[in-house]
Amino acid sequence: MNMLFKELKNGVKVPMIGFGVYQIPLEDTKRCVLDAIKAGYRHIDTAQSYFNEEGVGDAIVECGLPREELFITSKVWLEHYGYEATKESVLESLRKLKTEYIDLMLLHQPFNDVYGSYRALIDLYKDGKIKAIGVSNFSPDRLVDIASFNEIPPMVNQVETNPFNQQTEAQKWNEKYGCALEAWAPFGEGRKDIFTNETLKSIGDKYGKSNAQVIVRWLLQRGVIVLAKSVHFERMQQNIDVFDFELTDEDMKLIASLDDTNSLFFSHTDPNMVEWFVKMVQERKKNKVASKEKKNW
């Protein structure tokens, strides 16, 4: 099947439609990833905080494809931030993913010791453990900051991008610094009736395509890498079946009119949300300590 690729600043080529495994339970991850690979996906996106890297690793081993035909992304979680902790966590991700290298490693959130962690990614990149490095959920100001004061700027920034939060301004700043934009929640997890939206439906009806397919095609034509997710094989196939039509300028303008520039979830610049992330990290640390004490008792 056809696939578009995005060439990163260092020459690494990323399949522009990826399969995301967020919120897929560990016991279902291997089956879903194998189904996605069968459907034609070659880009798989996971994260330490999804707790399903092992399932992705099992699928990598069992799918039968040469490792170089797959593009694997993972992300460092907040409790592993800091230079040494990040390096250790990436090595642990490699073990769980059962691979000698990760194609793209991102810092998952723009909080905590971002700078120490990013330096760790740079060193792991130089050591060949990571083929490309980047960030996730970085607003334009944070992106410009980390890109300007590091030897190797981020090559990818993964942010919420969908018809209701289109990130057009963020894309301009990312591209200025040679950083590719990657969309999480391209379907907004179904919020605001996105799968039945009349504007998207009217466009899709012209081509015999679903709202989801119109969204994927719209993002591709903007040059944005797309992370589509489904646990159903038929929908996996449908989400990647977008290479037999092209949206017109009028279609693109109609979709642009849906943008209200607000997140469908939460803002990473909201101090209340920062506190929420801090509490999450603190709770996980407490649970780890309690678990260790119970084992040693």
From TrEMBL:
Q: Provide the residue positions that the database annotates as binding substrate.
A: 108
What family is this protein classified in? Belongs to the aldo/keto reductase family.
Q: Where is the NADP-dependent oxidoreductase domain?
A: 23-259
Q: InterPro entries this protein is in? A: AKR, Aldo/ket_reductase_CS, NAD(P)_OxRdtase_dom_sf, NADP_OxRdtase_dom
Highest taxon in the source lineage: Eukaryota
Keyword Transcription regulation in record: no
Entry annotation: catalytic residues: 50 (proton donor)
This chain's protein is named Aldo/keto reductase
Q: GO molecular function terms here?
A: oxidoreductase activity, acting on the CH-OH group of donors, NAD or NADP as acceptor
Look up and give the organism this protein is from: Anaeromyces robustus
Per the UniProt record, the site (Lowers pKa of active site Tyr) maps to 75
Keywords of this entry:
NADP, Oxidoreductase
UniProt lineage = Eukaryota, Fungi, Fungi incertae sedis, Chytridiomycota, Chytridiomycota incertae sedis
The reply to whether NADP figures as a keyword in the UniProt entry is yes
**Any one Pfam family match given in the protein's UniProt record, by short name:** Aldo_ket_red
What Gene3D superfamilies does the database record attribute to this sequence? NADP-dependent oxidoreductase domain
